Amino acid sequence: MASGEDDDPVVQEIDVYLAKSLVDKLYLFQYPVRPSSMSYDDATHLSAKIKPKQQKVELEVALDTMSPNYCRSKGEQIALNVDGTSFEDSSTYSIKMMDKQTFSSIQATTNTSRYAAAIFRKGELHLTPLQGILQMRPSFSYLDKADNKHREREAANEAGDSSQDEAEDDVKQITVRFSRPESEQARQRRVQSYEFLQKKQAEEPWVLLHYHGLKDSRSEHERQYLYCQSMAGSDNTELVKTPGEYLSMLMPPVSEEKAVMPMGPSNVLSMAQLRTLPLGDQVKTLMKNVKVMPFANLMGLLASGTDCTAVLRCIQQVAMLVQGNWVVKSDVLYPKNSCSPHSGVPSEVLCRGRDLVMWRFTLDRFVLRKEVAAVIKLPPEDVKDFLEQMSASRINRGWEFLLPSDTDFIKKHPDVVQRQNMLWLGIQSKLEKVFNFKKEDFAAKKEPQPELRHVSGEQRLKAARENAASLRKEPGARLPSQQRGGAGVQVKQEPLSDSEEPMDTCSALTNGSLNGYDSPGLSDGHNGQSAAGPSHDLQDFVSATFRKHFVLTLSEVKRLFNLHLASLPPGHRLFSSISDRLLQDTILLSNCKQIFVPFPPQTVTTADEQKVFALWDSGETFDKYRQVVYEVFMKNYRVRRTVVQTRLGQELGANVTKADVDRVLKECCVSCGGMWYLKGTAQS
Question: Name one GO biological process term (predicted).
């Protein structure tokens, strides 16, 4: 120790004083984008303001517009973009030139307990704790103001070209939704959100400040408060601490802070956190997130070695058995005193409606949405939510249960299956009383089975050859299986013997039939449509749709077609196997044409959305008005009303009235931001 002390002798002892006069007011400003050799000490500070709670400061500093490094043209252009050509008191730049710059602060650190401002004088060191450390960076809020001015001018110009009649909005349906009570988890997420913090920051008012330069007399006066004011007072006590204690005070040991688990989204489940829960809570959490799950998958998600009997006991408390799979109970998803996030319907009503959907899937693989909606009488959003939780939509067939029937579970656990069947009988009786229906009301209508007859290989081969010969003689003739009702006889095939000649399947498929069955896409035994042309019902649907909407994209036609299919009675197979090619051909055969129109730039569209069809010739005299509009939109994706009106006057003469222009725009176009777009091409 002696040698160590000789190597590091004490050179000087300095008294340290703690100054408290500015302890709540002293901030350290840093300028990270400015070198230290180019300070703002000599710059003219125009204004200053602060939000004390947020420790946010804004300074306005004048720019030297006479400097050779200043570009006057750029400064004038920026001022013009921000303030426009008007002279107002609220203008950002009063001399029509960018003559000032704003600095806005961000906190360099939130904990300043270890930082202080020190000043040394006559062998004494005076320390003043810092209230905050702020980094001052240039603010570009004037660019936002310029963008807002540009949008306002563009909106004013577009609005000036549109007539007063265009401002009259059509009557729109308004959906009223009731917000459900906010949970504690949702409240914490809202409080931590960026939008909430921005709103909270905006609520605190600015406090105006007066800036005093470095050499100002007021600055010299305030600088004196950096020294301890009570040098001879009772507060000056000698520091009586051992070197170890003093070192601990300077560098306290780092305490292990409790790790705060970040709050994840409600639909994200951490398996590590899940394993820490009791078994019942694990099963409930899994089922609440997955909603439909086979028992084998559930066992795979739980820890290895988990007792199967215990899991069965827990799963029956939170889920019901549907086709051998487990579906979470309705009261678990919609607890008491909650409501629908879509419509605000109480949880009791939601549970009854969802139980009926679950019960329907215990009877059949497919469920029709309109049948369920007609019974439970809930808003469409809630009905769709029920179905999406446990099924998937299938075109022309309804909603199919998500998972295949788990026959293995049904065989291994007959006691559980029997108990679940008893529970479903009780639920069924309650549902029948509440909704006033009978089980027979949902019984599937059985179609008459086709007659079975045996046909040998020789007979099939002979029939195929005869059909091929008849087609060569009469090219327009159709095979027997292509005639209306030709699918009413089902052929039960017998294997060919070794002595029999194999059938020429290529010719059979080419002619549209194979072994008595219609090949898909060529003919259909129910509606009689073939590759030669569409059925009358399909053509009637297309014609009626375009007489109502006039202009449609292919994707919109397909959407309306699916809605039409959903409105048909259960089991109706009028429009089976309708391909996109057949649908387009039907449109073109219904006095419609495809219009090749440009789309707005940077608009992402699918291939079906880019195919635009329009009613070209409906037999009305007004067809020529619509045709002129179609030709206008073949060159521009958006036009003004005056352009359409002028073009109609040029093509059709001076007898074009304002009512005619209104009608053709309403039939073929949509208005957005004062401009008119062809239906299906407007930006969403």
Answer: tRNA transcription by RNA polymerase III
Q: Strands (DSSP E) along 406-461, which ranges?
A: 451-455
Which string of DSSP letters, residue by residue, matches 364-387?
Answer: -SEE-HHHHHHHH---HHHHHHHH
Helix, strand, or coil here: 93? coil
Report which of 372, 275, 386 is spatially closest to residue 330, judged by C-alpha positions.
Answer: 386
Which sequence spans correspond to the domains of the chain? 15-63+99-169+184-191, 276-442, 451-518, 536-678
Distances from the Cα of 499 to the Cα of 454, 459, 462, 503, angstroms: 19, 14, 15, 12
| Crossing angle for the helix pair 580-588 and 554-566, to the nearest 10 degrees | 100
Sign of CA dihedral 12, 18, 19, 23: positive
For residue 533, the 8-state DSSP code is B
Structure tokens at 327: 């579906």
What predicted TM-score, i.e. pTM, was given to this entire model? Answer: 0.36
Give me the sign of the Cα torsion angle 537, 543, 547, 549: positive
- Helix (H) / strand (E) element for 359: namely helix 347-363
Residues 12, 4: Cα–Cα separation, whole Å: 17
pLDDT given for residue 580 in this prediction: 80
User: Residue 458, Cβ neighbours under 10 Å: how many?
Assistant: 13
Contact 32, 137 (CB under 8 A): yes
Task: Give all strands (DSSP E) within 484-557, no chain letters.
Answer: 489-493, 513-514, 517-518, 551-553
Q: Are strands 116-121 and 398-401 parallel, antiparallel or unpaired?
A: unpaired
Residue with tokens 């060569």: 472
What is d(CA 584, CA 405) in angstroms, rounded to the nearest whole number?
Answer: 39
> Is a pLDDT exceeding 90 seen at residue 328?
yes
Each residue's pLDDT tens digit, 250-306: 777 766 544 444 444 454 566 777 888 888 888 998 898 889 999 998 888 888 888
Reduce the DSSP state of residue 455 to 3 states and report it: strand
Backbone angles phi, psi at 158, to 5 degrees: -70, -40
127 phi and psi, to 5 degrees?
Answer: -115, 135
**Residue for token digits 């678990």?**
332
Cα–Cα distance between 503 and 45 in angstroms, integer? 97
The one-letter code for the residue type at 24 is: D
